[in-house]
Each structure stands twice: as structure tokens, then as C-alpha cells.
Amino acid sequence: MDATTAPHRIPPEMPQYGETNHIFEMMQNMLQQLLIHQPEDPIPFMIKYFQEDNDNVPKIIILGPPASGKTTIVSASRRGPRRTSRASVRAESSFPSPAS
User: Fold this and answer.
1) Where exactly are the structural domains of the chain?
2) Could you give the CA distance from residue 28 to residue 49 in angstroms, rounded to a whole number?
3) Whole-model pTM?
């Protein structure tokens, strides 16, 4: 028996993760849209599908009092991962924590 005909052994946590995070529904919906639109280059289409504002893309809600930095957090998240220098990390770590 070769690798292509061997039975598949799927760990029990995999299907549970897929159901908990709605992976199966997201992939099915994306595949439906891909087959309906049939773009020349499917990879950018799939990337755009998951980045769009649709029901299958997780949403993040930022709550906080006025002047707590909500707008800064949103604008930073749109630019991608934050890159800091060692000096700014040291400066930020010198602030007292909220628990202090």
C-alpha cells in the first residue's frame, strides 16, 4: 500500500477546530465565489475574498474611553505589524503598568 492509497488518519482535534472556527463554511463559500467568478489569477481573488468585509471574516471591535488610543490602534493595525526600535521598547517598558 503506497501513500496515495493508505487510509488517512485525521487527529480528532482537527475537525473540532474546523467547526469551532467555521473553517469549512469559509472555504466552501470562498470556493463557490471562485467558481462563479472564475478569475484569471485565482490566488489574488482568494486573498481579496478573505480580506473583504463579509460575514466569514472575523471582526475586531475596539472599545475604550475617549483618548485611550483606539484610533491609533486601528491605524497601526492597517499598516501591518508594528516595528519598534530597541530604544522605543525600553522607553515603553519604563511606564508603570496599569496594575501598579
Assistant:
1) 13-93
2) 12
3) 0.44
